[in-house]
Specification:
Elements: H1 7-10, H2 12-23, E1 39-41, E2 55-57, E3 62-64, H3 79-91, H4 98-105, H5 109-123, E4 137-145, E5 163-170, E6 175-180, H6 185-195, E7 201-205, H7 208-211, E8 223-227, E9 235-236, E10 239-240, H8 242-259, H9 267-279, H10 288-297, H11 306-309
Parallel strand pairs: 4-7, 7-8
Antiparallel strand pairs: 1-2, 2-3, 4-5, 5-6, 9-10
Helix pairs in contact: 2-3, 3-10, 4-5, 5-9, 8-9
């Protein structure tokens, strides 16, 4: 449990020290040249107003603060509010809307919206390792989001007009999701081959992209089992996709109940946020505080400009 009245959420100087301890556990590192030895803090004086937390590197003769090269760079939002936003996003199982953050933090809606996208960038996993392995099981399934039928089209059944999300869930481990253009073997199989180790037991439902292709899934993986949902079969021994269905339940409740509308151009960031919380969930031993600390570790090298966050 994390106390929302903790000093790092109330005081910007303490928040800066908290971020410095997270980013530089062994002392300041120059983001310009990587130097560590010849760095000293620039202290304010009566003649010249100096930004708090400013350092200078004598190797490259450049000045910097802890926010340079991070998702916080260029932001005028106090760092304690950034830490509060990170904590609230990490502690909310189904997410927290930008509108709610705007009210709680006392910033504009536009600022809160941009903050949440920057924090989602910090949550993004860098160079993820393949899932599964010998004795491991990975469940694979897809879900659909939204209703993007062009105006004037008749309502009807089917999912071709919706956004498609492919998710891989490792039993007892991680989740990894992808916003894909279509759900067919040509699109999905290359992703599975790249993300799952060959000696893994893969479990799916009986969908054609997994079970009715020219090349069987066992050509890619050690074992492939599936359940036949169309016949009312959901569990057969340890063969099921219930783990991934539970993940989708949280994802859909968040998208529907918290965010309401998520555009196609932002969907990958939102599903990445749900992946992050799942990968640092409580039954793996992580608390809200641990989850926020993990997100804070990911702030470096992911600066997101406002123009880059807008739809193209």
């Amino acid at each position: 449990m994390c106390d929302l009245t903790a000093p790092e959420f109330q005081n910007e100087d303490i928040a800066r020290e908290h971020i410095e301890a997270s980013r530089w556990p062994n002392g300041p590192v120059c983001p310009h040249c990587g130097g560590t030895e010849r760095i000293y803090p620039i202290k304010p004086n009566e003649k010249k107003k100096i930004r708090k937390g400013l350092y200078k590197c004598n190797d490259c003769e450049k000045q910097f603060t802890v926010t340079i090269g991070t998702v916080f760079e260029g932001s005028r939002v106090p760092l304690n509010k950034w830490l509060m936003a990170i904590h609230l996003m990490c502690a909310s199982k189904k997410g927290i809307s930008s509108n709610q953050l705007h009210r709680m933090l006392g910033v504009t809606y536009k600022t809160a919206w941009f903050m949440t996208h920057r924090i989602r960038e910090a949550m993004r996993e860098d160079a993820p390792s393949p899932m599964g392995g010998a004795g491991g099981t990975v469940e694979v399934d897809e879900t659909f989001w939204g209703n993007t039928k062009p105006k004037g089209d008749k309502k009807g059944r089917g999912y071709h007009h919706k956004e498609k999300v492919l998710t891989l869930v490792e039993r007892g481990g991680r989740a990894r999701s992808f916003h894909v253009p279509s759900v067919n073997a040509k699109t999905l199989r290359p992703i599975l081959r790249a993300q799952i180790l060959a000696d893994t037991h893969v479990m799916t439902d009986e969908a054609g992209q997994y079970c009715h292709t020219r090349e069987p899934m066992t050509a890619d993986f050690a074992q492939h089992s599936y359940v036949k949902h169309g016949l009312g079969e959901y569990v057969r021994g340890d063969v099921h996709t219930n783990t991934i269905e539970s993940y989708f339940a949280i994802l859909k409740r968040g998208l529907n109940g918290t965010f309401h509308h998520v555009g196609a151009h932002h969907l990958c960031r939102y599903i990445g946020e749900f992946d992050f919380r799942y990968n640092y969930r409580a039954n793996l031993g992580y608390s809200d505080k641990d989850r926020a600390a993990a997100a804070l570790k990911g702030i470096e090298g992911k600066r997101l400009m406002y123009r880059d966050s807008l739809p193209r």
